[in-house]
Amino acid sequence: MTGEDTPASGSTEGVEESVTMTEAGSQHRQDDSGRARRTLGEPCWVSLMVHSMEATQRFYGELFGWEFRPGPQQLGPYVRALLDGNEVAGIGRMPGSRRLPVAWTPYLAADDVDATAATVRHCGGTVGVGPLDAADAGRMAIASDPAGAVFGIWQAAAHLGMAVSGVPGAPAWNELMTQDTASVARFYQSVFGYKEEAVVSADFDYVTLHLDGRPVASIHGVGRALPRDRGAHWMTHFEVADVDEAAERLTDLGGQVLQPPHDGDRGRKATVADPEGAVFTLVRTADGRP
């Protein structure tokens, strides 16, 4: 899927075909045809639109061990990244006429993307692309919340989304970075039905979003620390076997370390950017959840 099947950052040791989603990942339902479906609002894919697909594929291939195969091409060249044969992310070419930020974009699952897009508008968000079909893969839209953070909406058909999550080389978590959680938490709750679990702290504004009793994403209110040049944005965390080694390798490949590796409450992580400036987090956790 791009942002535009969309439009959305290691070692692959230990990744097996039988690997399933972690606690932060998928719990599938079945539709009338018996196909597995994801819960409304569940993060199901990440995608990146860039200027040089060839250079970007080399970078992430070396960093995470990804291989690539073509995806839907309606809105331009697009490939899906594979980790040991399992689809984990998408990369597409930015339309030459548009000067958009290069950023990883998470996709949230929907049973009916048109209805969800209408709810986004009703709740104060914006739909910038779609809804539209991505060949037989599914139907998608690109939207933004009232604070301006961009996300995708994905109604699966042939393409259900990520096959694995929370293993080295795959997405592990998605976190919304915004000024304060109160300004947008109600929007996501209204659109996707999340239940919220707040961290009670005088100096830490953080909410975990739950579906069916399990954590699937989070919102972090960072106040004045929100980058002026980026505004509110979703941050994708990619699991790696060794954060320090991955950060060093990323630098050698032409990326940039924005926040050096450090230990947090749930694991070791580093904030980094690829050669085109797409920011993401390298993380090493026990359960795939920062």
UniProtKB/TrEMBL annotation:
Residues covered by the VOC domain: 42-156, 170-285
Stored Pfam families: Glyoxalase_6
Signal peptide: none
InterPro entries from the UniProt entry: Anthracycline_SecMetBiosynth (IPR052164), Glyas_Bleomycin-R_OHBP_Dase (IPR029068), Glyoxalase_6 (IPR041581), VOC_core (IPR037523)
Amino acid composition bias (Basic and acidic residues), ranges on this chain: 26-35
Stretch list, region Disordered: 1-36
SUPFAM superfamilies from the UniProt entry: Glyoxalase/Bleomycin resistance protein/Dihydroxybiphenyl dioxygenase
TM annotation in the entry: none
PANTHER family given in the database record: CONSERVED PROTEIN, GLYOXALASE-RELATED
Protein name in the entry: 27 kDa antigen Cfp30B
Organism: Streptomyces jeddahensis
